[in-house]
Description:
alpha/beta; Family 1 extracellular solute-binding protein; D-Maltodextrin-Binding Protein, domain 2; signal; SBP_1_CS; 17 helices
Amino acid sequence: MRKKIIGLLLATMTMTSLVGCGSSSANSTTEEGGTITIKMLSRYSSDQGPDDITINKRIEEFMAENTNIIVEHEAIGDESTYNNMFKTSIATGDAPDVFVNYGGTQFKEYVESGLFYDLSKVAEEDTVWGDKYIESMLDALKYEGVEGYYGVPFSCFATGLYYNKELFEENGLEPPTTIEEFEKVCDEFLAKGITPFALGDKDNFRGAHLLANLVLKRDGFDYTKSIIDGETKWNDTAMKEVFELMNSWREKGYLGENITTLDSSGEQSLFLNGDTPMHLNGSWFMNQVNDSDNPERVGFIAFPYFEKYPENKNNWHSGTSEGFSLSATNGEERLQASIKLLKYLTDEEAYNESQALSKGGIYPVTTMKEIDDITPIAKEFQAAFTDVNEAKLEPGDYAAKAQLREEIRDAIQGMFAGTSVDDTLARIQKVTDME
């Protein structure tokens, strides 16, 4: 789940049409007067988020500068509705020319079918545009056995631990740097009747994000990939230790009493209202901190690491939040117009415009300008997000079987509802072993 979902659910089917002079079907290639229409499908339906403002503004500017290109932009706020609309457009042969893509193996079939355009070709022809990307941020848009990459990120993320400075100071505690310190802090808060680390896994990505952080701190990504690929079993020692740890936190009460009935919005509200002292979330949450009543009381640190495995200290649950991909099936004229639009939406200044609006953040390119007007929480986030070793998505994002991602999420939710660790791991293994 991403930052724009909150506050956008009312915009589920809102469409932002940015159409130039005259209206015509985007299925045609070249129109009267030498104009060409391309279709864009995105999640940028808000006029408030920095990315939304930047992208919608740039589409308008692009059409003003390129009067022969009309961009029909459908912007869908709700993630599920967006995904369904995208799948329908592909199935009906009406693929958008430019679209938001989150990467991961769920898109591999489309790539192998030749539906997505290989953007490494664009980067080879325009190295100024292509060389600015941080290599690891392209990982989610690459596919094993397929050359090239099939999207470029507009934003990236990392998750870590937000904490309430006032609650820590009032209780004489320091923010934890290790898992062992984290558990001691949780015990101290619980002893005083304070839920230390509420988790709203009614939205089942929350448990998956917790798993992603813990497994990366427990072992390197090669280990996780071997489990996802079926080479190592889910009940192997290290993975089982992580699941047992998560379950023990549930049993001790660290995660609250309503794990599977509390949603992510409720979890965030508890933290922002000062009811819970620690909160796992991504870099996108900085915007909500900045808009809260008391942003100064919120701090940020890297997610704690295991004392026994310090070599994994700098592994982060991190990667591409969202990127842009192009259709490879709508003809050469529309493809070239789409490449031109893509470059305009993702040039150096586009990223810096978004950074200026958000007053900080982390970005997938090496060309970010230093800015003076940066929020305190952004400063702390940037200070923590350094010396990164491995930056990886949640385990299910690397699964060859698209259903495994959701099965992992659902199984964790089931564990938080009372299913044993052994049965939870067996459930995931069953899907991993499916032909």
